Fold this sequence. Notes:
It is a single chain. The chain is of the alpha+beta class. It has 2 domains: 2-31, no CATH class; 45-147, Frataxin/CyaY (Metal Transport, Frataxin, Chain A). The protein has 3 helices and 8 strands; from the N terminus they run αββαββββββα. It has helices spanning 2-9, 45-70, 135-147, and strands at 20-24, 27-31, 75-80, 83-88, 93-99, 104-109, 113-120, 125-128. A 6-stranded antiparallel β-sheet has the order 3-4-5-6-7-8, with helices on one face. A two-stranded antiparallel ribbon has the order 1-2. A hairpin with a 2-residue loop joins β1 and β2 (27-31). The longest helix has 26 residues, at 45-70. It is elongated.
Amino acid sequence: MQSLRGNLFGKAxxxxxxxxRRSLAGWNFRLRFxxxxxxxxxxxxxxxxxxxxxxxxxxNNTFEDLLEQSGRTDYDIEYSSGVxxxxxGDHGTYVINKQPPAHQVWLSSPVSGxxxxxWASNVKTWKSTRDEGTMLDILAxxxxxxxxxxxxxxxxxxx
Length: 159
């Protein structure tokens, strides 16, 4: 199997990331190497966990205060093991969680759908991997609409 793998994939190095073409027993293969590069420099594992945990703590505290002020019994929040689950009754359920292997924070929103965020050190916030949106801006808008009030995240420190 090792020789088959060696013949099929060739000797691709990190320096030669152009498409690789190989054929084997009448089958043609074209391999492409894709990657996204964090333009702000990679975070260490320790720094990622610190940033993500601090952000989730700020979100949890803000959401708990909102739920307490609203007095709604059909709203609920749970925060455990790096996952926030915010149930807003008829408005749906938000899930915000850490993705350590990717150094990302993921958001599942009933309004805007799934989104992935990476830490942008130049602006000190979690930015979307697909567009220019930030996690806090998206959550402030959507949660603010659900509560019919402006949302401000406390203990910000750039989060």
